[in-house]
Structure formats: structure tokens, C-alpha cells
Exportin-4
Amino acid sequence: RLMSSVLRLCETESQALKANLGHLLSPEVSSSLMWFLRRFCLSYCLPNESFYAELSVVLTSAFGRDSEGAGWTLNYLLGVVEQTLRQRSGEPGLVEDTVNLLVTMVDSKDRGQLLIKSEGLMELVQLQQSGQLGQMSSPAQRGLMQGLVICAVALPEADGRTQFWSHVLDPPITAFKAMVTSESFPKQYQEEEIKKQVLFHIDNFIGAVQGCLMPTAQCLFSRLVGVLEDSVKLLDIYHNYPAVVETVLELFVECGRRMLCYLTPSASKQLYEQSVLLVGTYAKHNIGRRNVGDDEDQWRDLQLLMELLTSLLSKDFIDLAPSGHGEDVEVVAAADVCLFGLNIIMPLMSRELLRLPTLCSQYFKMVTFIAEIYPSKVCQLPEDLMKNLLASIELGLTSFGPDVGTLSFDFLVVLGSYIHKNCGPEVPVRQGLRPFLKLVLDLILSQQINSDLLQAASASLYTLICCFQTDYQELVQALLNGQTDQTTGQRLAESFTGLTNNVELTADRINRIKFRDNFEKFIANVRGFLLVK
């Protein structure tokens, strides 16, 4: 009865819109309807019966698999979505809730197989391409395209998907290419209407990428790779227009997040190559030309660039691409793109810029991730770049919050472990890491480290002790010699002896855990009687 009442209310709104009485409808009530319908679809409309030990017979009879009610309800809701978007596109909150309903409706193979046969779906495609939805916000525009693209997963055959793409994707791609390659574009690109069209098209492509799933990734990327090439050119043209710059970067970030793990080596290589061109174009227009005093919002493009570099690394530990293609490993690797990007980003990362919270967090996530995946590449960084990188890690240990502190300690662990096992004492990066032993030890003993960071600090201290055993002995001896009270000196010596007791200095995980247990006892003993001045 509840569902029938909701559907009657939907029909009341529909009849009011047909009678040109839409101005009398409440956007809040309509949004609540969409909210309810979305949750109904998630839980009750064609539910995955294998997830439940028991199901209501009434509900499965009305909305379950092979029921007439499920198909009718989905087709009706698709009509509600189309009518709402067509006639109420000026109400942003309602539109976004409506688009979320659509994405939920198609985000199930069983529901998608019914919707793909519906005439209402192609009417929605035509509406999306008609240009009548210009008032829609970027998230809504992306969500609409995402929902349409997800539908392709319900088609079992490649030929069917190709035909579906020809209706959904080919028209916007053709329109986009026609716009950016027209002779008038270089003269008119600064006009407000042209910029709106550019953003509209890129938002559509971002939505298409967000709708990517494993069965459709390769086919989708082959259609969009030309768009990526043109987007790099747009970044060059619109480098003074933050909205366009950020939207282009978002497109690449979504490709890295949503598609890369499904792509074959040759397709991955194409994405890497376009990313290199993108980073180079960004660098050309930003190095030495930005004011550190800008607000954090003014640096969102740099944050997106770091997100892109981080997402490109995902291929090395999550690779779901189909095997057996006989393709060679890509010539351009994710590491090369990331290190190229790091060369661009590092000169910009000053102390003042790191005080911007979001940017700071993303930066430390990126450098720690790169060090974890490619420690050998990090060790080969140019000397100036390495100095800047280690200086930023020192700031991360001493100047920011616990999240950044944890990432900074993790950086020292992964890089220190690699150096201990693979680099001799003469390697410059080993010497660059040497001062961190004293810094970390001082931070621990002076109680400048939050209790939440002690576990990360323990792993970092153990790794640094493994790398610089002689230096560690000298530091401990200096601390003992500095104690004027004999009893305190004796207790301190016993505590340091217990710290490495029964622990092999091999920088492996097992001994790191043993060291952590000793470290907890060490902290409990030492902090009670020692204050490092």
C-alpha cells in the first residue's frame, strides 16, 4: 500500500505537469519522492535473491524476478525521470535526486536488461542530446550520462553494445570534435557560450567514464581516447580559465580511477602518453606563474594533478585487464608519468602551500604512495628534487596533523626498508635519510608525537635504526653521557637495551612487530623520567 500511494502521488505530479501546473508543485516534496523511489529500487525492485535467506512472497510476486510488476514499475519510473528532467530542469536539487534515481535503476544487471528494452530509454537519450538540459548542474549532467552508459552492461553481445554506443556516445563525441576542430574555434573560444559548450561536453565524457564497468571499459576507452587528445589541447588553449582546466583534469582523474585497471597494455600506454602530455601542458603554464598567497580553491587544479598521478599507480597492484592478448609491456610506465609529474609539483610545494589542508593531505598521500610502489625510482631522483622531497617529509613530521604525520612516517618506512636492502652507504639518498634518525628519536623522547602516531613512529624508528646502526649507537651514548643523575642514566641505558632486545635489524615485517612490542614498553618506562631538552 505504501508503494501504491507513492506511485499515485507521482501520477498526480505527472498530470499536473501535463496540465501546465508545474509551478504549483513543491520541489521538496518531489525530491523526497525521488529519494524514496531510489531506496525502493535499491532494496525491493528486482533484488538479488541470492543475497537473502528469506524474502517476502508478496514483494517477490510484485517486484521480483519474472514478475510483471517489476517491468511495469521500472518503465513507469523511467517516464517519471524523463518528464522531470524535461520540465523541471531548473530545480537543481530535484534534478540531482532524479539523476541519482536513474543511476540506481540501471546499476543492476536484472533491472538494466528490462530498461534497455524500454522505449523510454531512447527518449531519455534523445532528451540528453537535445540541448534542452542546459540548466542542469555539472554533477547532474555527469550522472545522467553515467546512467545511460551503465545500461550497456545489460547487453550481452558486443554488436548490441556497439549499436547502443552509436546512439548514446557517438553523437556527443562527434559534436565535440566538430566544435574543437572548426576553423572558428580559435577565434571564438573565449566567448561565454563556447566555454559553456566545452564544459558541457567534458562533463558528459566524465559521466561516461564514471559509468564504466569491466565489460565495457575497453570499448569505451577506444571511443574516448580521441577526446583525451583533444582535451589536452583544450588545456593549452584555456590555461587561464580555471573551470575548464579543472574539468579537463577531472576527466583524466576519472579515467585513471575507473578505467585503467581494466585496460590492456596498449590502451594503458595510450592513457599514460596522454597523461604525460597533460602534465607537460599544465607545467608550461603554471611553473613560476602562481602566487602562493592564493586561496585553497585556487589550487584545486594542483590537487587534481596529484590525484591523477596517484590514480595512475593503481595499475601496478590492481590489474583486471583481459589476459592472452600477447601484447608487450607498455613502453611508457605509470612510474615514468608519476616521476615526471613529481618534477613539476615539487618546485611548487613550499611551506606556505603545504599549510592548505586539502592540498597538504593529497601531496603526502601521493609521495608516500609513489615511494611504496616505486622506491627504486624515488631513490634515483635528482639531488635537488630529493632535497625538496625530504624537506617536505620533515615538515610533515613536525608541522601538521596526525594524518599527515602518519603518512610521513610511512614514507620513511617504505623508503628506508628499500635503502637498507638495496643501497650502499655511498648512495646520496641514504645520506639524505640519515638526519631523520635523530629527528624521530627526539620527537619520541620529547613527547612531541601524538599518541595516535606512536605505532607509525615505532615502525619508522626501527627502519632507521636498521639503516644507521652506528649512528644509533652514537646517539644513545650521547644521551646517556648527557645525564647528570646516575640513576636516571642507568634506567635509560636499560630501556635502550630492551628496545632492541631479541630483535634482528633486518627491516622486515616480523622484526618490526617485535620491535613495536619492545617500543611500547620503552615508551612507558622512559617518558616517566626523561625530558629531552
Remarks:
- The chain has a mean pLDDT of 89.
- Residues 265 and 327 are 7 Å apart (CA to CA).
- DSSP finds 28 helices and no strands in the chain.
